[in-house]
Specification:
This protein has nine helices and no strands. The longest helix is centred in the first third of the chain and has 24 residues. The relative contact order is 0.05.
Length: about 190
């Protein structure tokens, strides 16, 4: 549409899911056939294969402000959201992507020139994610640190691993004991 964008990265190819690409190709084929049938009846030439995918009746592109007011605002009201904009949708996608790929992949998907923009501005922290991270770190610290080995460092067979998963070792007493001794000034003794 134009030879410039907000940044150099704005003018790159935008990756989309393969299934979505197939659906859009089918949509284009069907809508062009219907559109061309109407044009033939009026004696007009067929549509341009480079035409917009979702054109307005004049064949031009949809104005983003119009779409935001006509579609996104109504959808936000229906869903009970305070607002729904393209920016909100981009932040949602970046936040959901953080558990699905490498940060550099997400940066490229978002077409950001700097990783900091992706992580500091677009990705949001979710309570469930924070809780999961805390629990994961706690479980790793309370375990032997070596998957597949028992407390004595011996390799476990499948039955032992399943038994341990069903009945994890109780460590609460160890943590509380360490904290109590630490409070009394004996933390160094606990570490020996």
């Amino acid at each position: 549409m134009r030879p410039f964008g907000k940044t150099k990265g704005s003018l790159t190819v935008i990756p989309i899911a393969e299934d979505l690409a197939d659906e859009l190709a089918a949509w284009r084929r069907i809508s062009q056939e219907q559109y061309d049938k109407k044009k033939r009846k009026r004696g007009l030439p067929p549509s341009d294969p480079q035409a917009f995918l979702f054109p307005i009746p004049r064949g031009s592109f949809i104005d983003t402000g119009n779409y935001r007011n006509r579609v996104l605002r109504k959808l936000a009201e229906r869903l009970g959201f305070p607002k729904l904009t393209f920016q909100v949708i981009r932040r949602t996608i970046a936040t959901l992507a953080k558990d699905k790929g490498h940060i550099k992949d997400i940066q490229e998907m978002m077409r950001h020139s700097r990783v900091a923009t992706t992580t500091d501005v677009y990705m949001q922290s979710l309570h469930e994610g924070v809780r999961s991270t805390v629990n994961s770190i706690y479980n790793e610290l309370m375990d032997t640190g070596t998957l597949g080995k028992d407390g004595a460092g011996r390799r476990m067979d499948d039955a032992a691993r399943e038994s341990r998963a069903a009945n994890p070792p109780r460590v609460r007493g160890v943590v509380l004991e360490f904290a109590t001794k630490s409070r009394k000034g004996g933390a160094a003794k606990c570490l020996k």
